[in-house]
Amino acid sequence: MGGSPLIGRGRELQALERALEAALQGQGSSVLLVGEPGIGKSRLADELSTRARAAGAAVAWGRAWESGGAPPLWPWREALGALQLEASLRDDGGDRFLRFARVEQAVRARCAQGPVVLVLDDLHAADTSTLELLVYLARTSRQHRLLLLGTSRDVEARQRPEVEGLLARFAREGVRLWLGRFSREQVRALAEGVAASPLPEAVLTQVFDATEGNPFFVDETVRAYLAQGTAAVPRGLPEGVRAVLQGRLGLLSSAARTVLETAGVLGRELDPAVLAQLHADAARALVEAEGTGALVRREDGRLAFAHVLLAEAL
What we know:
By secondary structure, the protein is an alpha/beta fold. 54% of the residues lie in helices and 12% in strands. It has 15 helices and seven strands. The strands form two sheets. It has a five-stranded parallel sheet, with helices on both faces. Strands 6-7 form a two-stranded antiparallel sheet. Helix 5 (128-140) links the parallel strand 3 (116-121) and strand 4 (146-153). Helix 8 crosses helix 10. It is globular. 40% of the residues are buried.
């Protein structure tokens, strides 16, 4: 979706443009983009990066490694390396504060040459040192021509309290933007943009009902429809969608997943009493699943899968 026109993020893009303009004028800015997988955080950051380059800013990205095993400060090594500032991360006897101060000095000197945008992606998977340096720069770079832009999945961050706390501290230094799902009209615009032509109303309804407005799911579902060449959206999950959903379900313990597999057969909404008859540990499993975001509590108090496709993935 990176090469397609940006759909449905006018308010968020305006906020990012204000932060960019402030940075261009020498007022350091910080923005955290938050939302579920596939909601378009990286896509929005990419759009801002394009506009920043057009305005004359240097843009550098770093990404946390979600599979684990990356060395400390990996996103910073990527981003600062792109600006030829990686030497500022060298370790002087393990003194973290001196290292952070040295990075700030290097970034300040680079900003004196021209505005800089640093994008750190997937911060929910970052090590604490990466986030501590992010908070440090957000607090010490208010007079630099610098925009710090981070992205994070909300549920995954909540599973790591130290990460959630540091991200909250970073967000307090600037702006937190929550990205929600698309409306039906936004889904129409995105789907027809992917198809490069109008789509039958029945197909658009199927796409909206199946994806519930998640932009990545819309993109993958429409591409599967176009590839199959039928009159209706194909049944089953596109591989990209399945991978995202399995990642969300991977946060669950095996016991909780077993309970949800039963619940998925029973439908979108869950009946704790019925599940308790089938699984002795159903109550504990439902609390865990709600904590990981696989389940949400509706206004009437009933539990339901956070996305209709989660039940199908199970």
